[in-house]
Design brief:
mainly alpha; 10 helices; globular
């Protein structure tokens, strides 16, 4: 696992801007990274088009509701954007989650620590398959293409998770969130949310094209083995 020694703290105030030494991604780096993102998104959207169609058919045949799930997430500069995934949950997922957490204290504790559930009652049988194989993430290639996300970067967070970042919030906002990143290749859902936050901050501070390349290579192994998926 990519190790970080800093401790996660939550001060009364969080700085709005990062010091220069906290961000490795300069103007030239951003241009190169964005060019790679656009080229990669176009390539993979074309390459995976038959797979995209197959997943659409699978969702339609196995559950009621829309094929694409959209949710607000926080991107670069703290701006909100619509984050897309193939729907892997029941259509009334929010109500199901609330009811489940209200009646299961152990699940509530797991949710508070990981923001994930090991046995999530919201996920459909076909949804478990596309989550385990990461096929549910493919619509985010559109987010990459239009500039909401990058191929590699911090995991996109929900608005109500901002409070969990503490002093690392400006670091998260300094770059576009990623389709994959250090969290995905360092244990994924086995990590606590605090560990995920520290990984995101370390990625921003230590960014390089070589780091992105290593993360992409490790992502292939993680996807093929289903390591850490839920």
């Amino acid at each position: 696992m990519y190790r970080i020694n800093e401790e996660l703290t939550t001060p009364a105030t969080v700085p709005d801007r990062l010091r220069e030494e906290q961000v490795a991604l300069g103007a030239l780096g951003r241009c190169v990274k964005r060019g790679c993102d656009v080229a990669g998104a176009v390539f993979f959207l074309v390459l995976f088009s038959p797979l995209l169609l197959a997943v659409i058919v699978g969702i339609k045949l196995t559950s009621r509701g829309p094929v694409i799930y959209s949710q607000p997430r926080i991107g670069r500069g703290g701006r909100s954007f619509h984050f897309y995934k193939f729907r892997s949950m029941v259509s009334d997922a929010d109500q199901v989650l609330t009811s489940f957490l209200d009646t299961d204290s152990e699940a509530r504790q797991q949710w508070d620590q990981y923001q994930k559930l090991e046995n999530d009652p919201r996920i459909t049988p076909f949804g478990r398959f596309i989550r385990r194989t990461s096929l549910d993430e493919l619509p985010q290639l559109w987010n990459v293409l239009v500039g909401d996300m990058s191929v590699v970067g911090p995991r996109p967070c929900m608005p109500n998770q901002k409070r969990l970042y503490g002093v690392y919030w400006p670091s998260y906002c300094a770059v576009r969130p990623g389709l994959t990143g250090l969290w995905q290749v360092s244990g994924r859902n086995r990590l606590t949310y605090a560990e995920r936050v520290r990984l995101d901050a370390s990625y921003v501070k230590n960014w390089s094209l070589w780091l992105d390349f290593k993360i992409l290579v490790k992502t292939i192994r993680v996807v093929l083995t289903g390591d850490g998926s839920r």
